[in-house]
């Protein structure tokens, strides 16, 4: 059974477990690195802070009792948009609709906030992620998204919300 859980800062151990797994599994998919979140960067205070972004929604997917996916929705750069960030699904849970449910959770949150658009950045060569987002109504704007530490740019995708 698949369920979604909204996290609070007290749920930081669950977020930590998933985020470290995500950074290890797909290091090229994220703006931060595993090394940045391990060692001296691996503190309860930092994890709690990550789950305390004002106005954000942090969601984990739990499949048969185990956390298998994560996503965040954060307020956008303007009053009419929101952003989907930190999306990841465990390889063992891919193909079970987990990604679709996580995207929908952020879309619902953004619409409830009154956002007209939901934005995200994705690596241009991450075909599986782009297919997931396109299946959920996102379109590539042709504009560069977030800049990576190596100077390359992600692709910006947007979905107009009802």
Q: In summary, what is this structure?
A:
Helix content is 30%, strand content 33%. The chain is of the alpha+beta class and 162 residues long. It has a seven-stranded mixed sheet, sandwiched between helices.
Major β-sheet annotation: 7 strands, mixed
N-to-C CA distance:
29 Å
If strands are numbered along the chain, what order do they take across the biggest sheet? 1-2-3-4-5-7-6
Q: Give the count of helical stretches.
A: 5
State which percent range the strand residues make up.
25-35%
CATH names the topology as: Aminopeptidase
> What is the C-level CATH assignment?
Alpha Beta
The helicity comes to: 25-40%
Mean pLDDT: 95
The succession of helices and strands, N to C, reads EHHHEEEHEHEE
CATH architecture classification: 3-Layer(aba) Sandwich
Radius of gyration: 15 Å
Count of strand segments: 7
* Main structural class: alpha+beta
What coarse outline follows from CA principal-axis ratios? Answer: globular
**Could you name the ranges where pLDDT drops below 50 across 5 or more consecutive residues?**
none
CATH H-tier superfamily: Gcn5-related N-acetyltransferase (GNAT)
- Overall tally of structural domains: 1
